[in-house]
Amino acid sequence: MTTLSRAFSPAVSTPQAQVTTLAERWAMLREQQSGLRIRNAAALLSVSEVELLATLCGQQHSQAEEQVTRLVCAPYDLLAELHSVGPLMALVRNEHAVHETIGSFGKLSGNGPVRLFLGAQDQRLFAFRWTKAFFSKTDARESIQFFNAQGSASFKLFTRPDTDMDAWAKLVSRYVAEDQSQTETVAPASPETQKVILSHDEAARLRERWGALRDIHQFNQLLRDFEVGRLTAVQYAGNEWVREVSSDAIELALTQAKEQQLSIMTFVSNGDIVQIHTGVPDRLLRTGPWFNVLDPSFNLHLNTAGIAQAWVITRPTGDGLVTTLEAFDAHGNSILQLFGERHEGEPELAEWRALTEQLPTPDKETVHASA
């Protein structure tokens, strides 16, 4: 992972003229910090990633054979054709986790605003929130990238050595947009409307509803009904259903799953998509603040310094209790969720539940709203 440097100042002048355009500022930044990722560059320049990417749109760059093309943003139409191109790397990230899965896409399922892929590529797609799409080529690496209205990356798809490049090129060509201008507009983020404090009666009703759950997917409706985020619901759920664990619980759980050869499901979401990988973690590597899973078909890069709280969460279903280990950041956003491998109609793995029961509690007791 690239470490950001604050040495760059957008106000620095070139010998010829004052650097004023975003394209010029980015070009200068890349000269100063070779290899800087576009997402990190956007943060340094105080713009969105899509605004930065658009500065390269419609033009061929000799340096690194860089090419960016704006696409018609019809995500479900395009995604439905992915099965024809062979293996791809699919990337989903949030502020503290990067989740990469390698494999071929199957049939896109569903008819409403939410669709899904199942199989080697496993995603829950909220593509009605995606508003912009681009094709990008840097050296021999090609990708299709989707962004939301705020300019943040929702979903990225990268070619692999065994991708059918003829089918890929034909797919891209069918979605090239007429507009190839070098600017993009973004919308401000919507103000937060979720509650973080519940009354005594609201908290009691939430715990009652929690105990009445019969499907893991009913939890999202519970959140909507009480107008709360995931962490707030957890904090009010009560000791019967949740237990706070230490911030290193994710790393401990992945390490123990490797030792026990226990298959787990790793979920990462950014609000626009949920990507899932199922399997036994194998190659684990700590690099500074990043804890990594580096397996042949799955990579996870987790910035554990961003974990403010971690919880073991239990919810009742028609198949028995389902246990999740979930990490949250300082703003209450979900970073990552771990489940034992489970299929609909089956109870969860007893080994997974036993693993979560042994995870340590925080060193210092934290007082939450449910106390």
TrEMBL record:
Q: Which SUPFAM superfamilies match?
A: Heme iron utilization protein-like
Q: Which residues cross the membrane?
A: none
The residues covered by the Haemin-degrading HemS/ChuX domain are 47-175, 228-359
Q: Which domain of life is it from?
A: Bacteria
Per the record, the GO terms for biological process are: iron ion transport
Query: Which protein is depicted?
Result: Hemin-degrading factor
Q: Which organism is it from?
A: Salinispirillum sp. LH 10-3-1
